[in-house]
Specification:
alpha+beta; 10 helices; 18% strand; 277 residues; 8-stranded antiparallel sheet; homodimer
Chain lengths: 277, 277
Amino acid sequence: LRDLFIGSEGTLGVITAAVLKLFPKPAEKATAFVALPDLASALPLYSLAQETAGHGLTAYEVMAGIVLDLVLKHTPGARDPFAARHPWYVLIETSGLKADGAAERVLTEVLTAASEKGLLVDAAIAGSLSQAADFWRLRESYSPAQKPEGGNIKNDISVAVALIPEFIARADAAVARLCPGARPVPLAHFGDGSVHFNIAQPPGMAKEAFLARWDDLTHAVQDIVIELGGSISAEHGIGVMKRADLARVKSDVEMDLMRRIKSSLDPKGILNPGKVL
Amino acid sequence: LRDLFIGSEGTLGVITAAVLKLFPKPAEKATAFVALPDLASALPLYSLAQETAGHGLTAYEVMAGIVLDLVLKHTPGARDPFAARHPWYVLIETSGLKADGAAERVLTEVLTAASEKGLLVDAAIAGSLSQAADFWRLRESYSPAQKPEGGNIKNDISVAVALIPEFIARADAAVARLCPGARPVPLAHFGDGSVHFNIAQPPGMAKEAFLARWDDLTHAVQDIVIELGGSISAEHGIGVMKRADLARVKSDVEMDLMRRIKSSLDPKGILNPGKVL
């Protein structure tokens, strides 16, 4: 029963208690902002980082060049870690259980090996906690930096980690075909296979005209996700916004099973009504 | 739906495909057989190992002294790693992503710190792969070594990791009260909170007379598990053997919810009939 309630968004019952398994808090972290030659390099670099740091790899956030463009444009005090503009970036964090410098040694080892293999074109390791915070602010400004750009059509999807580059390339192509000038702004949490594939409106287009393309563009992105065996909801669930989309991408059998479970646990339909199903 | 099917023992549907997330295979392992002064030391030693080795801690198997007694008695070629008999033992394994000796250094560090804190009385680190295999054989002989001892009443339960010592102490006391001479043979997988709490019959007692106490003794153990907020089935599920026990320890509401889900997904009752519910 427990796992049925997790992710059911309050539609099957109310969770009133939880037991958490805790792990030791890391004593040190090391952070790098890395410039990639292309999206294809993100996957072998991730494998290299995972092989070298193991579970000590605690963040691997891949961002298209346009993410940094918008963050630098709209975030007061944000500074580019590099002298040149690059097509793709990744924020890498490693953590260590002891404050013995191992996190930074492992991170340096990853970056040195990646450089030798041509998987990166530039890299900056944070030399202080404030520089690490600056790197993280570039990442965390992802959403606010898109707001001043007008209409934004949001996708929060997941696919197998190894398919993230293929997903982004195909989704980019679909957007270019359906709405020339619209700007995909992808950010991928490589560790769990989830991708924020937001689409910023073409500069100069009327915001309402762009947002009228919501279903059109999200359905094209979702169709690629389903072809790749992924999920149209990653971190943010189904809720109201994706309720109609759920029925689009799930089979009749799946929808029927979900409705049967809902009606057997909530026959009066009083639990978070109108959500998910 | 996915998490509903996991653990449903084939009663809700048939799993026909699965996608697995893979992690790099360790390049090296280090193994130690450790003698503890008492059961209470097992928990702080586990915390110490987890703080020092992090996710590199890949096994922590706690065994009562009687486990080793029976294994040495009934396993051809099994040898005691120590000159003296000790009340509790733990098999600890650490793993490393590179073959650089770090797994053994970390394990040595754990044991040295534990020794200084009085958490262990003796320890042997395997000096070769064959010695590591010998240590593991002591652990893996847990089940076969109990067979020649006659009747065996099996419990496979789980409680929060921090409550394992309390569970074992209380279950030991319950067995001593209900069936003097019966011998608890506990083995705890500390990493996931699951405990095999087998009970070997009193020497000399008729096997059938002991097995007639099955419900009596398992219910006493299960009641302690439920008081501690645990689960009466850990690794081995409910199946047929614990079907009646499930209804004993679950509330009417929980049983009703499970039955509703079962009947809504399998209205004809054709999926693994007779199991779980």
